[in-house]
TrEMBL record:
Localization per Swiss-Prot or TrEMBL: Cell membrane
Source species: Gemmiger formicilis
Gene3D superfamilies per record: 3.30.70.20, Electron transport complex subunit B, putative Fe-S cluster
Positions with a binding annotation for [4Fe-4S] cluster 3: C150, C169, C172, C175
Domain 4Fe-4S: 32-91
Residues noted as binding [4Fe-4S] cluster 1 in the record, renumbered to the chain: C49, C52, C57, C74
Class of this enzyme: translocase
Keyword set includes 4Fe-4S: yes
Cofactor dependency: [4Fe-4S] cluster
Family designation: Belongs to the 4Fe4S bacterial-type ferredoxin family. RnfB subfamily.
Cofactor info, note text: Binds 3 [4Fe-4S] clusters.
Assembly with partners or alone: The complex is composed of six subunits: RnfA, RnfB, RnfC, RnfD, RnfE and RnfG.
Name of the gene encoding the protein in the UniProt record: rnfB
Name recorded for this polypeptide: Ion-translocating oxidoreductase complex subunit B
Residue span of region Hydrophobic: 1-26
Classification of source organism: Bacteria, Bacillati, Bacillota, Clostridia, Eubacteriales
């Protein structure tokens, strides 16, 4: 046989054999993937923010389909995304929480300093130097680690303390994970009071370090008509299962450490905004 013809025949035979092998392999060795995974992934926001607790949107979609993970954890997508996923999965509408980030500190410029920090301008770095420059060992350091972690431009440092824009916040929790002082917590999205202090020191010491720190005086506890506030570790704590947002605690707090969660921190001498005046909330 002509060597050229022989070579062509060999190549054709090898090609056919390889094709047959690939067809058989695709049939008998294929890894099945539930088509709903792709459908759920398409519904997700695609931000890959990690707020759901998974590595990314694809991993979260796989967990929903294969492991029955909750469908409401995509904070950027919100209720519409959860409803779309429930439709794909054939679930009934679920009772999902509506939470947004809240900074449990109103210190900033209202709080004293122990020393002038000139190091790397991150909260993590500052906290590693003798516990940080702030006179309060529990409060916001105000160097913006949370701002850099937020992909939605929903948190900024104002007057030395982090402030959340709840209209932009999606509840992804990226800021809560980043904060070295753990002063950012998830609170109900409804306009309710929040104790904007994390200081566990006794009242006399708090008075020396911060103008707006909770001194555990107990006025809020004694005046709350719903018994929705109690003291723990020298700080007032609100039980949101009992709180109806009446605002009594906001008006009674002598240090203005209790504020509406949609409010912004203010200097201690500034007038109380209208929305923080005691009022009946429907």
């Amino acid at each position: 046989m002509n060597p050229i013809v022989f070579a062509i025949v060999v190549v054709v035979v090898l090609g056919l054999a390889g094709g047959v092998i690939l067809v058989l392999a695709s049939k008998f060795m294929a890894v099945y993937e539930d088509p709903r995974i792709a459908q759920v992934t398409e519904c997700l926001a695609g931000a890959n923010c990690g707020g759901c607790g998974y590595a990314g949107c694809a991993d979260y979609a796989k967990a929903i389909v294969e492991n029955g993970a909750p469908t409401f954890k995509c904070a950027p997508g919100g209720d519409k995304t959860a409803d779309a996923i429930n439709t794909i999965m054939g679930n009934a509408t679920d009772d999902r929480p509506s939470l947004r980030a809240t900074v449990i500190c109103a210190g900033g410029e209202n709080c004293g300093k122990r020393f002038d920090y000139q190091g790397i301008q991150t909260c993590a770095a500052a906290a590693s130097i003798a516990g940080g420059p702030s006179a309060c060992a529990y409060g916001c350091l105000g160097l913006g680690d949370c701002t850099r972690a937020c992909k939605f431009d929903a948190i900024h440092v104002i007057n030395g303390v982090a402030v959340v824009d709840r209209k932009k916040c999606t509840g992804c929790t990226a800021c809560t994970v980043t904060c070295p002082r753990h002063v950012i917590q998830m609170k109900p999205i409804a306009p309710q009071p929040a104790v904007k202090c994390s200081n566990k020191d006794k009242g006399a010491l708090v008075n020396k370090t911060c103008k707006v720190g909770c001194i555990a005086c107990g006025l809020c506890v004694r005046n709350c008509p719903n018994q929705a506030i109690f003291l723990k570790d020298n700080v007032a704590v609100i039980d949101y299962t009992k709180c109806n947002g009446c605002g009594t605690c906001v008006s009674k707090c002598p240090k203005k450490a209790i504020q509406w969660v949609e409010g912004t921190p203010r200097p201690i001498d500034a007038p109380v905004p209208a929305h923080e005046v005691l009022k009946t909330r429907v």
